[in-house]
Amino acid sequence: MALHFSNQEFLKRKTKVLQSMKEQNLDAILMFRQESMYWLTGYDTFGYVFFQTLILDNKGNVILLTRAPDLRQAQNTSDIEDIRIWVDKDGSNPADDLKDILDELSLKGKKVGIEYEAYGLTGRNALRLNKSLENYCNIEDQSELITKIRVVKSSEEIVYVKKAAELADLALDQAWKHTKAGASEAKILAEMQKIVLEGGGDYPANEYIIGSGHNALLCRYQSEKRILSDTDQLSIEWAGTYKHYHSAMFRTITVGKSNLKHIKMHQACLEALQNCEKKLIPGNTVGEVFDVHAQTFDNLGYNKSRMNACGYSLGSTFSPNWMDWPMLYTGNPYKIVPGNIFFMHMILMDSENNLAMNLGETYLVTENGNERLGKQKLDLVNL
Fold first, then answer.
1. Residues 6+ apart with CB under 8 A from 61
2. Which domains does the chain have, with CATH numbers?
């Protein structure tokens, strides 16, 4: 069995969930988020793209309902003992199989929470689920119950996040090493991912973002792979990933003759990041962190180039993206506490001049402030 955490750790997590369920007067919760299943039991799969749920009732019973290909996956990666299989066939409705399990647990007429905010629970399957449970039990959206517990990392989790940060640093070394005029984006990308995997890391929950020239202004992966020109800009967002825990970074690297506007944009990004660092302390809200980010850029004349969010929580996440709750945007009331992990990205996209500048780092919130997990320099690098 390939469990990545101690039995005591899993027991603590289960106890916290059961306590939260008690506070919400829940008789059971149906988990559809792969992050919840992995965090609670170690279950590691991408089979959540099909109907799959982990049931936890208030007596502590844990049952997984999944497809046949994930039977051995669950047996090998998790501490789940009761695994049920729904059968692939024309007209099959796994929501009805789920209802039978709820019957076994005497949950008819009881209050059941559901993780609707889950990539594994498609709109069609949610409709099936609601129809199957209609007039059977009292259901309510509890998408954030486990997420709000997961947002504070344990000491065992922080070990993995710090290892991910080490891998992210190594990946940046490879980016600097291979970035030059005439270099292929594909080569740079391959070397960055290679060093992470060779270091014992995993595939990230979403693709690395890489783009040069006009594509340097994009905040998402796309399939074009350019050859760097003599004077160019290269934006890269990536994450070191270890046991599915992420530590992300963001950089824009300039190639060839330095552009004064690039230099000023980098100075603005650095100032904004440093101001956000000062605000990222226990007791403040994540909305206040964003407001410092916005105020810094706006005062420097970059209000049209900045984003409307400046980061998000990181942890153990699965495809299609590594972003976790909560996000750093104005008015977000979440109060920062020790054990939070946040990726803060300072992004400037100047479409008028076709210029980009990005600077992003991952932070661990401590009792008295925060720790930047990446150890690389924050300078603008020109190659």
1. 55, 82, 105
2. 7-150 (3.40.350.10), 155-372 (3.90.230.10)
